[in-house]
Every structure is written in C-alpha cells, then in structure tokens.
Amino acid sequence: MEKQQVEFSSGNEMAALAIRQIGYDLMGYYPITPSTQIAEGLDTMRANGETDLIMVAAEGEHSAAGICYGASVGGGRVINATSANGLMYAIEQFPVQSGTRYPMVMNVVCRTISGPLSIKGDHSDIMFMLNAGWPILFAHSVQEVYDFNIIALKLAEQVRLPVIVAYDGFFTSHQKRRCLRFEKDQAVRNFIGEKKEEYPFFDFDNPITVGSYMNEPDLINNRYQLHLAMKRADQVLDELFEEYVELSGRSFQKTEEYEAKDADTLLVLLGSSFDTAMEAVDQLRKEGRRVGLLTLHALRPFPHREIYEACKNASSILVADRQDSYGADGGNLSIEVRAALQRYGCCTPVKSLVYGLGGKDFFAEDAVKMFDWVEAPDTPDFDYYGVEPGETPQNPEKPFFTPLTADRTQIGVTKAEMGNNGKVLVQGGSLNETTAIPKRIAPGHGACPGCGIPVNLNLLLKGIEDPVVLLFQTGCGMIVTTAYPRTSFKVPYLHNLFQNGAATLSGLAEICYRKQAKGEIPPGDIIFIMVSGDGGMDIGMGSALGTALRGHRLLLFEYDNGGYMNTGYQLSYSTPMGARSATSHVGKTQYGKNFFHKDMPQIMAATGIPYVATAAESNPADFIKKAAKAAYYAKTEGTAYVKALSACPLNWNDKPATERKVIEAAVDCCYFPLYEVEQHKTILSYDPEKMGKKIPVIDWLSMMGRTRHLKKEVYADIVGDLQGEVDRRYACLKAKAENSFL
C-alpha cells in the first residue's frame, strides 16, 4: 500500500488535487457554480508552478466540451468540470465523444437545472447523461471524489470511453472533510500507467478519419460496439476496485450497503444523503426496527445484479430521488431500480419519493420520516416529500406608476433631415430633465454597495420615455433583483440563460408586434431591452450577433464589469489583460489574464446595426442621450447596442465611494472610450486628448486591487503591451471618426 497523508479539504479541492497528481495535459472549462472551484484551484496551482496543465477558458460550456474533444482526439489526457445548465448546453458534444471512443474524465458537480434558476444541488442534471454513452461514477463522500477521479481515468483508457465522476453540489463539493491522499504523485501515475494510442491521430504515415458519416448497417454496428464497451466497463470496474484497494487500503464496489443484510425496509438513495441517512438507521436500529440503506457508486454501467442481491430479502423498498422524470411517477433511479429487480424476478414492492430538489436540506429526521412513510399502510407508490403550500398571490389594485404622457417629460428624440447626415437628435436629456420619468426599478435589491449595475440601468432607463420590457440574462443583475417571491421590477420582466437571451427577446418582440398588428394588444411603442453582463456577452455572443444580423427591433444593453462576477469573479473575455481573477491568478509562472479584452462594441458595429454606443456613469448626460437614441433606433429601425463600464467593488478590490473616479479614469486613459457608431458613422463623444485629460493606462490599473500588482517593474512589458493595444484601438476610432468611409 502506498504512503498517504491526511488532507482536510472539500470535494472540489480533492478533485483538483487528484487532477494535478494525475498530470493531465489539458483542461477545457467554463465557470459555473458549483464546479468552478476545480478550475480555480488548478489555476492557483498553475500560477505557483505546481502543474503545467494547459487551461483553456472557453466562452461557454459547448466550446469547452469541443476543446476537450479535440484535445482527446489528439492523444492528450483531458479533464473538464461542469454543472447543471452548463452540462445541458454542452450535451450535444457528449455522444460525439463516446461514439468515437475517445477517453477523458469530466467531473459533474450536480446542481438543479433551470428554470426557474437555482444554483443549489440536486440530481436533475446528471440524469440527462444516462443515455450519452459515458460510464458514470457517483461519489457520496469527499474521499470518494478523490479516489474515483483516479480510478475514472484508468477505466476510461482501458475501455476507450469518456467517464464522469459525479457528486453533490454544495454538499460534497464544498463541505470540508478529513480524507487521505497519496503522498507521492508518482504513485497515482504508476497506478494509471502510460497512455496508449491504438490509432494515433498525428501519424501522418497512417492518417485516419474520425467521426465519418454513417448509415445502416454501420451506425448500428457502431452503437453495438459502444454497448460492448459499456459491458466491458462493467467488468473492468470490478477489477480496478480490487486493484485500488491494494494501492490505497480503501475498498469500493458498484453499490454500498449500510445495515442492509437483514433489513426489512431498505432506503435507496444517491450521494451525500447516504451519509446523513446512516444516523437515522442507527437511531431506528436502537428502537428495534430493521432498516437499512443502499447507494450506488455506478450509474453507468448500471449494477442490476448488485442491486438485486442487496434488495432481495427486504419486505419493502423506498427509492428516494433527488430529481423527477416527470410523468413517469418516479425519478430515474427509482425507475431503474424497479427494472433491475424485475429482471431477476424480485416482487418486493418498490415505492418512490422525490425529495431535496433545489438543494433543500436533508436531515436524519427526514430519513426517519421516509422510513415511517414507506412502512405505513395505504401510502401511494409515488409522491413528493417536503412540499410546502404557497400563498395565493395578490393582484395589485393600482398600477405601479402613472403612465407616461408626452407633456410629462422633456426629452425629445427626432430623426434629422438628410442635411444633418440623417442622425437622431436629442433635445434635453440632463439629469434634472429626467426626473419626471418614473423609476422602473424598485428601491430594494440585493446588490453589493457600490455595484454599478443598478446605477447604469437607471441611467439607461432615464433616457427612455416609452414603456419598456426587460429581459435579463443570468448574472448578478438578475440574481440580486428577483429573489423569489419578490421582484425589483415595475415593468414586464423575463429571464433566460446566458447563451440565449437575445434570441429569446427577439421572439418576445416579434410576437408583440404581431399581436399589435392583429389588434390583440393595444398599439404603441414598446422598447424591448436585453440586460447582459457578468460574461453574458461571451457565452451569449453568438445569440446576440444572430439577433443583430437579423435586425430585430430591440436594444441590447451590456453592463461590463469585466468578469464572471456572479460565480465569484473568474476571467471573462472583457477582463483587462494582466488582471487577477479566480481563474487568472498571479504567481511565479503567471501574471493574471494573458490576453487582451474583447472589443464588443466594434464586433457589434461590424454587424451593420443602425446604432452602437458606449457610455459611462462618469458622463451621465452623455449616457442619457445615448439611451434615448438607442431606444429610438430600437423601436423604428432595428437592433441597437449600448455598453456601459460597470463597477464591481467586491471583485475589482477597490472602494465603493471611489467607483465614479475609477470609471472616469478608465475613460480618460482610453481603455473605455466614449463614442457612437450611428448609421455606420463613428462619432467620438469625448476625447480626453483634446481635453488635456488623457492619462496612462497604469494610472487606472493602479486604482484597483485586481490590477495593482502591474505597477511592479517585473510586469512592465505587460503594461506596455496593454498600453500599446489601447492606443492602437483609440487611434483606429479617431481615424474612423475622421473618415466616414471607415
């Protein structure tokens, strides 16, 4: 047995440790709660020189899965980690990986699938992978997360299939436990062995084609081979468990029992609930009740015989599911347990409860109540446990605010004659002149002190007189304003996920225009606004570009806080180069984010939409006038786009009271220039050079803790590169402003 040492760590930390010890080649990933800590931990190790793992931060989970697939085809050892809707977004890629038989490992930190949005742990995500052709190991403890990550890679390479290690989000992933890990990395690597490529992709003397087009009978033969590979995995997994006990002293099987041998009543459940239910079993055993537990370490291949052997002597069986297969009267675990028992002729009645959805806590007393429920007479075969009745909503008797009329406001937006180049003119627009416009956001929200999101959103809405409909992509702005059962919005509001906000809003807008044309809803101008930030224009860029190219009449508003803030600040493509984040640490081998920030306004301008603008709270009158212009174009001609630099004191690591000065410095150093692209013509709104206010980029970077390290001489080249890129982009803007053809 190899020498080991004690760690007091969480499941995510132990997964990262196992990944480092294994010595993977590449990780393609995208931040999503609660799996993000794995990438964060590995990035810290990489910054400190503890691993040479290539880490590729994709712009979304679908791309992350593609990155992993490409690297595995190339012969690399590849790792990924995801959760919930990230898994769903990438799911198209997973049968490709298994169908072409390329091994890798993916940690799925189980979480509720939206909607409504919830980031807490249940099993609604992992059950979607049952038909993807991946073996699935399920860990109920922190120790098992570590051990199964090691076993999983050896299993993957022996049967040539990608393998999942799944465990409970926030329960197993974040709770720290005492566990053991191998003292020497080489012990792990010796157990796994050298990677062997039967058909090397980079063998140019014997080139191969991967993923070719197939019809019958080849496709069914391919699927049969996948079936045989899974059967092989069933055998190999037993062998690896036996081999691993000699290495570690820890024994695993495909199922695990607790007081099950003589149990009259057996409770079957997955994940961390197994450990909690042990307390209930101990309590009830003391009372003389013969109860026991069963959990699964493998969802695929499914351990039919092992389940039968554990359950065959019980008088009653209850399967508790942390997800529901809606319409099937039971979750996937209960359905498959029933099928396994039927296969071997076991007639013991099986009942099912759905529990713990959305991370609802599960205590020992809940397990006791489950045993009471299944042993009581006349209970149904299927039910929900822990459901609470809600309150009947009360419809307000009054509207939230008095409707706007033309004589109540002082902002006028008109389309000029061609003599003025056809530009939109805005009369008024000062802060004082917008006081008549009612607030569309209620005073209450949960944003951090100094957060720029409500500031920027209120400035945007001050310039828009017409009724508005808001769609928020997932992000801080959405989370801090809509915690059920309350809302901060006095206007119609819709949420959809990062990757599909713009497309969703385009559908909403088009159906509104259709209903107005048919007389089903009153006529009148309505401004449809998508609010995006926290990396939403990374993962959602494809949807936004498609919407812009189609030219829907709506407004895309991006509050750019320079990171994935709602998941704890990981790098986004708008994070400044050199900035420290949870996935771009600073250490002896790493200086922070290593590529330039994305120029989203110029990308949007390239689509040819009629109006693009940047705005900042440091120039409020300019902000309001641009909002008015954007609304005009959004209701008359097509898609408009406005981007505002949005402060995040928590993650920028500065003071809330100074944020307006920080934003002003970003404008004055030309990192965030203020300009418009109206009808393809670029107009500078503010030129710090002409005003004599231009400052070096480092002056702005020095105001924030996330970039203050760049003041050190060792990072002078990085600052120089960033300054050069900022100057280049600003020179291009000035050239475009001076030449109407650019």
What does this molecule look like?
The protein has 742 residues and is an alpha/beta fold. The protein is 36% helix and 17% strand. It contains 24 helices and 27 strands. The protein has an eight-stranded mixed β-sheet, with helices on both faces. It has a seven-stranded mixed β-sheet with strand order 3-2-4-5-7-6-12, with helices on both faces. Strands 9-11-10-13-14-15 form a six-stranded mixed β-sheet, with helices on both faces. Helix 1 packs across helix 2 and helix 9 crosses helix 12. The longest helix is centred in the first third of the chain and has 31 residues. The N and C termini lie far apart (70 Å). The mean pLDDT is 93.
